[in-house]
Amino acid sequence: MARDNSIKSVLVIGSGPIVIGQACEFDYSGTQACRVLQAEGIRVILVNSNPATIMTDPQFADATYIEPITPEFIERIIAAERPDAVLATLGGQTALNAAIGLYQAGTLEKYGVKLIGADVAAIERGENRELFRGIVEKIGGESAKSIICHTMDEVLKAAALLNYPVVIRPSFTMGGLGSGIAFDESSLHQIAGAGLRHSPTSELLIEESIIGWKEYELEVMRDKADNVVIVCSIENIDPMGVHTGDSITVAPALTLTDVEYQKLRDLSIDIIREVGVDTGGCNIQFAVNPDNGRIIVIEMNPRVSRSSALASKATGFPIAKIATKLAIGYTLDEIRNDITQVTPASFEPTLDYIVVKAPRFAFEKFPDADPRLTTTMKSVGEAMAIGRSFPEALMKALRSLERREAIFTFPAGLSVETRTELLEAMKIPTEYRLQQVQKAMWLGATIEQAHQSTKIDRWFLRQIEIINEEARTIRDCAELDLPTLRSAKEMGFSDSQIATLRGSNEEDIRRARHHAQIRPVYKTVDTCAAEFEAFTPYYYSSYEEESEVRTRSKPAVIILGSGPNRIGQGIEFDYSCVHASFTLREADFETVMINCNPETVSTDYDTSDRLYFEPLTLEDVLEVIHAESQAGPVLGVITSLGGQTPLGLAAGLKAAGVTILGTSPEAIELAEERGAFGEVLRQQELTAPEFGMAASQQEALAIADRIGYPVLVRPSFVLGGRGMEIVYDDDSLSGFISRATDITPDRPVLVDRFLDSAIELDVDALYDGRELFLGGIMEHIEEAGIHSGDSACVLPAMTISDAQRAQIRAATLTIAQGVGVLGLINIQFAMADQKLYVLEANPRASRTVPFVSKATGVPLAKAAARICVGATIAMLREEGVLPTSGDAIAKGVSVKEAVLPWNRFRRADGRGVDSVLGPEMRSTGEVMGIASNFGQAYAKSQISSFGPLPREGVVFISLADKDKSSGLAPARELIKLGFSLLATAGTADFLRSHGVPSVQVRKNSQGAGPLGEKTIVEILNGGGIDLVINTPVGRGTRADGWAIRTAAVQRSIPIITTTSGFSAAVQGINALQAGSLSVRPIQEWLDS
Q1: What 3 state SS string does 916-984 have?
Q2: What pLDDT is recorded for position 743?
Q3: How far apart are CA 953 and CA 956, in angstroms?
Q4: pLDDT computed for residue 1035 by the predictor
């Protein structure tokens, strides 16, 4: 039953931008699919709007469409490319919903294209709550008691029948979007109202609550010959009530009896057969009542899911790769296991280790958001760790999160009151609940008390008790003898944790450990518990006897990855690391990747020659470097491609005698330490906005008085604008200083003059010590003061002159020389009143490298990796990696737009969080629009980022006083385009006085009018507005503006909060009215 030879070309639908609930695990699976199809000689057509993923680089498909993932755009692609088949099961819910849209519109039938991976009927059976419930019943399984609802009246009746609490689950959404648990009628209105809006079919399932039950999931694959394998079982440490993406999970499942596991296995096999997924993978979730063993089937995803990436990395079984082969006709027994090279894919993986996944959150970016964890996913990334025991894997996973608060601590002198408070606090699931459990048990809480508060299984609580017992032994032993030290390391304690318990320092513990020859060995992930030899070096550390690291003769380059995804450090950095690995392998180096993020391409076992799944801490990285130095020659370590995580390790590595390739730690310090960088600028006669460094509140107020308000305040050494604010007076500044003290200890706070209404520019360039290559000058669409990661930007820059371009290039060269860059540098400039200011320089791969590379066709990350190991720009020009002369040139006009997660967060009272942009980064991902002019490119970027601009209708405008004059021209243009305008009093008066007609509406704070005139918020909730323009008043959140913005977010009405964004939107609407937007593969753009 070999491959289906009728399939000569396949359209792969990607997953679009990184959003909460659908992160880079789908880029990993989509990249796998493209590579498999190309290897089979099939023409690959890809549609994906995300520029940050390596998947949309031109070499991964024959025709790559960086276009919106909507049925309309995909139809245009199908019409142009005429693929034989569409593969939609590897792009998350986005791809699946798009495929169903194509089917329902008759597009697939019209062009004779078949859907592979799962047919529409199977998708419907898996995703439609009612159909799936019938299937579970048919095979003898049980679902939670539930009622399907389509209106709020039906929802209220259902809740009365089922009794509170009830669980609300919308159909066809991802990451639990719109779901929740209602404990009373008011929370039911709030959650079900949002759920009805988020479900594309306005369908909800209201079901009995099974909060507190144990939650499991199984990854299952089936082929057309009806072979079924269970790839992996996964258990949530948090009981039901917390979304599986937000729970710490463990593989394999650890607290099931063999009989229970066999029941889940049998149910899974029966379900996948009955649903009819016969060429791919799916994920099935179960709840088990810990008191009586009753099993309930929660749901299934008839596609590769978030857990599939985790299961793939946990087992070494490449689910996406095998699902793609099944989709084109192979059967499991015909596919060889890459790792063993002898067993077929029908051979179920067996683990002789424990894997723990821990989620990473970003609540600090949304200070007014409700921190409770519910069935709506809120985490932005995850880390995974492998150990020989559960405590070892858990301790490694927690330190992989790079959060001081995540690591278990063992404080002295806390009281019984603290224990009681912790037992009460842990009843509500939050980001650090497991740390509360550990601390309460350290203070004497029993397993039973912790279980009553959290319903976490007693077995896991006993493991935490064992960790605490070990900590007591470390603390209390008179002398830290070898057996105690070895036992501590076997349990996953870091040198730093041991040092804290002993009142020593990390360096002394490390020295003692090395002196005693206590070092980790590295074991192989081999899919078969060492039954067969493994041929892929995919390693994890453990404190055992025998190391499995093979010797080598080629010089190795070690690449440090970027750790768990987070806001400010996402997939864009993984992109650069993967490119480095690919290009250095081609240049005949052995590449070694160290990373702990299971979602990414960098942690694929065939991306690098060797993969170490380890935390990115100084201790863990030094141990890998030592093991590799024993195995063969090591050229050095690249720290400049993975974002702030590896950069933060560079100085410590160098101090330990490790060779850092590329930009030196001293140069990084020079660029990131504001005083030293200011000196570089002074020497080069470049201008920065006036600034000062303050170590106290008094100093900060004195600096602000000298340079004048508004000022931008921020801590030094941060990524993603963490802790930045624009402040307008002494009170706000004093408030910031009191909050900012703990962000980066021993680092002063920076106070900069804020350049109001300047144009901000972003530059990516390469420097080899002699020559500069300019990758691109991007112009931000939002004015200065919006974080560069959240601002839309355009390449080429649209409003700067050739003379200014030359000035920017010269400034970039002098900064690169002055800092001492070797590789990539990103510089942010501002142009205010025709004067160029330098805002900051980052001597590393930046967030914009993938976007610039796609817009220009120049592989900047590849070139940077080669420069790190000694190549020059002249050599790279000769080899054809860089253009033979000149700098990179943008092909067409490309717009990058940020995607923001406002719809995921609510305040504790159920109201939305404010959607206003500022200097702190909040976006989770990005999209790209490419076209021949700015208007079309911008319109495409808005469609891709879930805020499509209207072609007609009603626009509401409310402008702050400082924005009124700049908002006049776009408002006038909207009238010309046939829109009608609504405005609040001040804006309406201003528009009227300048001859622009608008209808005045009441502010929310004014309440309804004497004749029942509605407020703007009531009009928004009634669905009478198509676009909202609302620029906030300078300082803080004004109640009226906040009410308008949150109402717009809750109704999914596009909202723009800057006047420059307003002008761009008008150009986009103009382009939409002028005709349909054309599609064109990136390969054609780059050849033009």
Answers
A1: CCCCCCCCCEEEEEEECCHHHHHHHHHHHCCCCCCCCCEEEEECCHHHHHHHHHHHHHHHHCCCEEEEC
A2: 42
A3: 10
A4: 41
148 C-beta neighbours (distance < 10 Å), count? 16
Nearest CA among 371, 853, 229, 977 for reference residue 578: 853
Starting at the edge strand found earlier in the chain, the sheet holding 725-727 runs 691-694, 749-753, 711-715, 725-727
Q: Which DSSP helix (H) or strand (E) runs through 463?
A: helix 458-476
Tokens of 504: 């020593």
Q: What is the pLDDT of residues 594-647, one digit of tens each?
A: 999 999 999 988 899 999 999 999 999 999 999 999 999 999 999 999 999 999
H or E element at residue 393: helix 390-400
Phi and psi, residue 220, nearest 5°: -125, 145
> Distance between CA atoms of 490 and 9, rounded to whole angstroms?
51
Provide the CA 150 distance to its chain's centre, in angstroms. Answer: 32
Beta-bridged to residue 296, according to DSSP, are 287
> What does the alpha-carbon distance between residue 455 and residue 449 come to, in Å, rounded to a whole number?
10
Q: Report d(CA 113, CA 969) in Å as an integer.
A: 47
CA distance 432 to 418: 16
DSSP string of 438-451, one letter each residue: HHHHHTT--HHHHH
Tell me the residue ranges of DSSP E strands in 639-728.
660-661, 691-694, 711-715, 725-727
Residue 63: C-alpha distances to residues 56, 78, 81, 856 (Å): 10, 12, 9, 16
- The C-alpha atoms of residue 442 and residue 360 are separated, in whole angstroms, by 24
Question: Would you give the DSSP letter of residue 516?
Answer: T
Q: How many CA atoms lie within 13 A of 352 on its CB side?
A: 11
**What's the chain's Rg over C-alpha atoms?**
28
Residue 919 identity (one-letter amino acid) = P
**Given strand 1055-1056, what is the order of strands in its sheet?**
999-1000, 980-983, 954-958, 1027-1030, 1055-1056
Strand partners, 45: 11, 63
User: How many whole angstroms from its chain centre is CA 399?
Assistant: 19
Nearest to 41 by CA among 8, 1, 13: 8
Q: Which amino acid is at 324?
A: T
* Residues 541, 309: Cα–Cα separation, whole Å: 21
Q: Which residues are paired to 236 by β-bridges?
A: 249
**pLDDT tens per residue, range 792-832:** 899 999 889 999 999 999 999 999 999 999 999 999 999 88
What 3 state SS string does 1061-1079 have?
HHHHHHHHHHHHHHCCCCC
CA angle, residues 160, 164, 165, in degrees to nearest 5: 145
Q: In what order do the strands lie in the sheet with 660-661?
A: 521-524, 538-542, 610-613, 590-595, 556-560, 634-638, 660-661
Structure tokens at 741: 């003290």
Indicate the residue type of 258: D
Rounded-to-10 torsion of CA 64, 67, 69, 75? -80
Residue 797: strand, helix, or coil? coil
Name 334's bridge partners.
Answer: none
Q: Using one digit for the tens of pLDDT, what is the confidence trace for 263-306?
A: 999 999 999 999 988 877 888 999 999 988 999 999 888 877 77
- Which one-letter DSSP state was computed for residue 59? G
User: For the chain, percent helix, then strand, then coil, each to nearest 5?
Assistant: 40, 20, 40
* C-alpha to C-alpha distance for 445 and 438, rounded to whole angstroms: 9
Cβ(186)–Cβ(142) under 8 Å? no
> How far apart (Å, rounded) are the C-alpha atoms in residues 281 and 317?
12
239 — pLDDT class (breaks 50, 70, 90)? very high
Least confident of 132-141, 667-676, 1061-1070: 667-676
